[in-house]
Write a structure and sequence with these properties.
Blueprint (H helix, E strand, L loop, with lengths): L14 H13 L9 H17 L2 H4 L4 H10 L17 H28 L4 H8 L14 H12 L3 H6 L1 H10 L2 H11 L3 H12 L1
Helix pairs in contact: 1-4, 1-5, 2-4, 2-10, 4-7, 4-10, 5-6, 5-7
Protein name: HD/PDEase domain-containing protein
Organism: Parathielavia hyrcaniae
Amino acid sequence: MAAPNPAVDAFPDDPLVQSVTAYVKEYMQNYDASHAWDHIERVVALAHHIYAQSDPAFQSTLDLRTIHLAALLHDVGDHKYLPPGASSQTQIQTLLLSLSLSNLNSTSNSTSDSTSNSNPTSTSDSLSTSNTKPDPNSDPNSCTPTLAQKIQTICSAVSYSSEIKNPSRVTSLIASHPELAVVQDADRLDAMGAVGIGRMFTFGG
């Protein structure tokens, strides 16, 4: 059994991070060993290490939760594994918003049930609470459309092939989303050394 990875468990009380972790664990079972869950764990750990060791001025421009989510999701919808003609341009963005809404609805329903049980005579108040749509902007553990788009953008530019194809675009994205540089470096570090060579042979056959 593999040893626990503290970095992967860095947000134990964040419902969105926990939902994304569970999703990615299952999703990566469809990939070969070169892009399996072990690879994701290592990239997350490396990303946390890079963040922790970064210059304070650069670190102040980064959001660790964004780095964590992007590291978890960077291989979801990888073009190397897509069927011919398939696209994953909004797959990660859609996933994040869906998981976030599901978590918010679950929390809202739990709160409504708790209120009803503690004060069963307040029927109108219960109905009012249940009809209130959850607002992702008011919950720091959820995912706003802006954050979902940002993580989608980061993940779409992590791969080496993306940078080779359009280096100026990636440079521009790093300027606006510095978290990309962290996840990008973490992913490439995992392609080095004995582990990287093993991953190359696994993917190449």
